[in-house]
From TrEMBL:
This is Rhodanese-like domain-containing protein. Pfam families: Rhodanese. It comes from Dimargaris cristalligena. Residues 309-329 are annotated as: Disordered. Keywords: Repeat, Transferase.
């Protein structure tokens, strides 16, 4: 994360990128909003326009070639310090941040508070389009290894799938916003609503990530060991990026994002799904949790989830193991 103070002081050294995106039913034209009001020299990266085309799944990660071409057009190369912001509640900036990370871009940041905070602080904005034709077309992004997305996830690691959707969507109590998509959750996943990780300023409507200490306490309370491999998920792969950024901020070493997320998982006929999940919560710790405390929580959650699946399948949880599931992460 970088602050608005830092960005204003370093505008001539970085490449601002507006990654604003909203759900289609919002009827907002984010490109037009960028043209009318943006940070100096900000390029607009439209997530949908560079996404891999798919009959069901929206905004999938583009190919390395298509991503490189888009960066060429924007005058961004592998040495650029990219600062991503949005005007759409932080999550789309996090998604663009993740995309850069996937393609090996090392120097990329997210503007905390986005355009809303920038404007509320009366910092300068501009309209119209910069002339990018003068910029060099030398993106030079490393090739993306498609095999890195495919993982066989067994039950021991499925407990570390973190789902950013709202609790009622996670439990299956309300339908998914996309017609025809089943409700429910990936077995062994943990509901980590992305709004629990941010603060919203009621005056400016700016969304900022919570301080690192609060984020660490939140994940500890959820029983999440951030040193383990973690997979973030959501409805289609956008708000999951908020969890991704939060975990990176607190030093989680192995975090991946499930591109396509619930929409991809639920569209597969072989995917087991859970609904009407009884929330398994721990009391908030009164003192810092030790490694033994965390392990006890992990074991308790694992035993609970095994019992839940055993009840659903009518089998003995002590003698039979849950199935492994394969999906893109």
């Amino acid at each position: 994360l970088v602050s608005t103070d830092w960005l204003e002081a370093n505008l001539d050294k970085v490449v601002p990128v507006d990654g604003s995106w909203v759900m289609p039913f919002s009827r907002r034209d984010m490109r037009d909003e960028w043209l009318q009001n943006h940070i100096k020299h900000a390029r607009y990266l439209e997530i949908e326009s560079i996404s891999m085309r798919h009959p069901i799944l929206p905004h999938l990660l583009p190919s390395a070639e298509d991503f490189g071409k888009a960066m060429d057009t924007l005058g961004i190369n592998k040495d650029s310090h990219v600062v991503v912001y949005d005007n759409s509640y932080l999550f789309s900036a996090c998604r663009v941040y993740w995309m850069f990370k996937v393609f090996g871009h090392k120097n990329v940041s997210v503007l905390d508070g986005g355009l809303a905070k920038w404007v509320a602080e009366k910092r300068p904005t501009f309209s119209g389009m910069d002339d990018l034709s003068r910029l060099p077309k030398v993106a030079n992004f490393e090739l993306f290894n498609q095999q890195d997305l495919g993982k066989n996830i067994d039950e021991s690691s499925l407990e570390y799938v973190l789902d950013a959707r709202a609790p009622d969507r996670f439990t299956g109590k309300i339908p998914e916003p996309r017609p025809g998509v089943p409700s429910g959750q990936i077995p062994y996943s943990i509901n980590t609503h992305f709004e629990d990780l941010v603060n919203r300023n009621p005056d400016s409507n700016a969304i900022t990530l919570k301080p690192r200490e609060e984020l660490r306490a939140y994940f500890e309370q959820q029983g999440v060991d951030i040193q383990k491999p973690l997979i973030t998920s959501c409805g289609s792969g956008v708000t999951a990026a908020v969890i991704y950024l939060a975990l990176r901020e607190i030093g989680a070493p192995r975090v991946s994002l499930y591109d396509g997320s619930w929409l991809d998982y639920a569209s597969r006929v072989e995917s087991p799904m859970w609904r009407d999940y009884d929330d398994f919560a721990f009391d908030a710790p009164t003192t810092p949790l030790t490694e033994n405390d965390l392990r006890a929580r992990f074991d308790a959650r694992k035993a609970y989830l095994r019992r839940k699946q055993a009840e659903a399948l009518g089998r003995n949880s002590d003698t039979q193991q849950p199935p492994s599931h394969k999906y893109r992460s």
